[in-house]
Design goal:
Layout lengths: L4 E7 L4 E7 L5 E4 L6 H7 L6 E3 L5 H4 L2 H8 L2 E5 L28 E3 L4 E4 L2 E7 L8 E5 L3 E5 L17 H12 L7 E4 L5 E2 H7 L10
Parallel strand pairs: 3-4, 4-5, 5-6, 10-11
Antiparallel strand pairs: 1-2, 2-3, 7-8, 8-9, 9-10, 11-12
Length: 212
């Protein structure tokens, strides 16, 4: 199998990490399409994009979804508990911005622990509620973990948001993510990449009293 090409794009006012993952032959997927995703469109060009994976439904992670679904005709994948968020500016919090985000109903609804096969790529969905009820991490080929706003480099995602739950977030990270092999690379929704081992040894989670 050819090596994965993981391309990061920092989009929108919140510098949200959007990713394109491809081997340039058998698969191409997009993870968390941020605002004004024209760099992504230029990068994927004529590649056949099979899936757009959403780690959760907050506005900065879905702002470019409508544009990219029209350009790629890819299947949109999100946890079932946040399907409605794609259509509702109050739920996705875009009502707090100047650009209301209203998308179509997604194509594939997850519950957690599903495995999606895309060419030579195996995608495992790991439901990690806490930052939001439907937050989902995606483990690609057992080596690359896309964590959205659940686990960032050195910190965890905020829970002082509507539907955020600090205890559930801590449990998701400790019982699911920190039990994965330490060499797995982490690609978060904001900030720089990391590894499971690094976060287990350096993340503020064990002593954190307040999440920002």
């Amino acid at each position: 199998m050819k090596p994965l090409n993981i391309k990061r794009f920092r989009l929108g006012d919140l510098n949200t990490n959007s990713y394109v993952v491809t081997d340039d032959e058998t698969f191409c997927i997009i993870i968390d399409p941020g605002e004004n995703p024209f760099e992504i469109i230029d990068f994927v060009k004529k590649r056949k994009v099979e899936y757009i994976l959403l780690t959760h439904g907050h506005f900065d992670h879905i702002a470019g979804l409508k544009i990219l679904t029209k350009f790629t005709d890819a299947s949109v994948v999100v946890h079932q508990s946040e399907a409605e968020w794609l259509l509702d500016p109050e739920l996705n919090r875009s009502i707090e911005t100047k650009k209301l985000i209203i998308n179509e109903w997604p194509d594939i609804l997850l519950q957690g622990d599903e495995i999606i096969q895309c060419g030579a790529l195996s995608i495992k969905a790991i439901h990690t509620p806490g930052h939001s009820p439907g937050s989902t991490c995606f483990l690609l080929n057992g080596k690359y973990l896309f964590t959205g706003d659940t686990l960032l480099s050195g910190v965890v995602g905020p829970t002082n948001l509507p539907f955020g739950d600090r205890d559930r977030l801590k449990d998701s990270i400790k019982s699911k993510l920190f039990r994965l092999p330490g060499e797995i690379e982490i690609f978060p929704g904001h900030g720089e990449a990391s590894t499971i081992d690094f976060e287990k040894n350096n993340n503020l989670l064990p002593n954190m009293k307040k999440f920002y």
